[in-house]
Amino acid sequence: MVASEGKKVRVRIAPSPTGFAHVGTAYAALFNYAFAKNKGGKFIIRLEDTDVKRHVKDAEQAIYDGLAWLGFSWDEGPDKGGEYAPYKQSERLEIYKEKAKELLEKGKAYEEDGAIRFKNPGDDVGWKDIVRGDINFPGGEVTDFVIMKSDGFPTYNFAVVIDDLLMKITHVIRGEEHISNTPRQLALYKALNEKAPEFAHLPTLRNKERKKLSKRKDPVDLRIYQKEGYLPEALVNFLCLLGWSHPKEKEIFSLSEFVKSFSLERVRKAGPIFDKDKLDWINGEYLRKLDDSELVDKIWEFYNGKYSKGEIAKIVPLIKERIKTFSELETLAGFFFEEQKVDKELFGKGYKEHIDKAVETLEKVDEWSKENIDKMLLANVKKNNFKTGNFFMDLRIAITGKKFTPPINDSIVILGKEETLKRLKKYNK
Ligand code: GLU
């Protein structure tokens, strides 16, 4: 019988507040959260903040903010309290001391240079990992190890065992980089005469070079995604697909659907690739599912009211099909709000004539509608024997400064006659 049988599921993440909220933390949180909620259990946050030197003050809040932004809720934690408080390791030092003393008294640990070491009996250790199957470490591979440092702080392997035990954690779901720590932890459970929780080691997220995500090179800080204008639902959906697949092969689904269909047995052990292009695609899908008015509100919020809702509403129909993130709006459609710098090198041959004739034609348009503009500009192209593509490209560059924009005639309608002519007249002579 395994320890978790018949017990109410309790899982946790145990991040260290060392800087910011890491996507790896979000990933572990997501899978723990889904497992707990799928089983009607509890999801807990515990902070591993005993490594004082690396502790960053705001990092703790960044973790709560990041996870809340993604829509996860936790049942117990340092900010929430709970039956097994405190949930910060730095506030549990007495507990570790007490437990270390117990081991000392039983002769299962000994003091050395002011530190306390666990006397490892050297038994074989193994467990049935829910993601990876049987994992075995031969005895002798794990030697004696420090559980309490001379400064009075516990080591990770000791604190994690005491906390998981006292907090009645039933399943430890964490990154595969901890597989090599598990034998030490299992040896401690045994020495304490306690049953160990079950273990599930999640695959490490990798970048496109198949290397572990790096703080320096990869976008691992959750705030990046907020700043670039991703929807939290889309980022969550993307994280769900890392190492896990929907039983019906769906790619777009909500967090609650994930919770319903989640099982650890469907987690693959091969390291999933964190592919930002895929995230962009998913985010675009989510944006297109919004009503125009919802999209307007979200863009307005993202830019903190920098553009009016009226202005945004005009351009939303033009960009909705191609926009991938909110921050792309200015690249794609900044010319609506502000005249852009034009690099004349972009123009084709004969651009002055193209633009001059366009000015002449557009001045004659009385009712500024898409229909009229289309009709008159096309007649002008025909009359002058211009190449349609070249003509409109020069117009596009003069008005937007770019070669890739929403459809140019639609854009001209929105910009209005006065502004369009003002821009064109800079390049027709
Ligand atoms: N602080 C560790 C981490 O974030 C916790 C590992 C564990 O869950 O046991 O990787």
Walkthrough of the structure:
- With 429 residues, the chain is mainly α.
- It has three domains: 10-202, HUPs (Rossmann fold, 3-Layer(aba) Sandwich); 290-336; 344-424, Orthogonal Bundle (Arc Repressor Mutant, subunit A).
- Helices cover 44% and strands 9% of the residues.
- It has 17 helices and nine strands.
- The strands form four sheets. A three-stranded antiparallel β-sheet has the order 3-4-7.
- Helix 1 (23-38) crosses helix 8.
- The termini are far apart.
- The structure holds glutamic acid.
- Glutamic acid (GLU) binds at residues 14-16, 48, 160, 174-175, 178.
Helix and strand arrangement:
Elements (H helix, E strand, L loop, with lengths): L9 E4 L9 H16 L3 E4 L11 H13 L23 H13 L3 E4 L2 E4 L6 E5 L3 E5 L7 E4 L7 H11 L4 E5 L6 H10 L6 E5 L19 H6 L4 H9 L14 H7 L14 H14 L2 H11 L6 H11 L8 H10 L13 H13 L6 H14 L4 H13 L7 H8 L1 H8 L5
Parallel strand pairs: 1-2, 8-9
Antiparallel strand pairs: 3-4, 4-7, 5-6
Helix pairs in contact: 1-8, 4-5, 7-9, 10-11, 13-14, 13-15
The structure holds glutamic acid (GLU).
Please state the second-level CATH architecture of the largest domain: 3-Layer(aba) Sandwich
Sheet with most strands: 3 strands, antiparallel
Give the CATH level 1 class of the largest domain. Alpha Beta
Quickly count the domains.
3
Separation, N- and C-terminal Cα atoms = 87 Å
Which descriptor suits the 3D outline? elongated
Which hetero ligands occur in this complex?
A: glutamic acid
CATH homology-level superfamily of the largest domain: HUPs
Using only C-alpha atoms, the radius of gyration works out to 30 Å
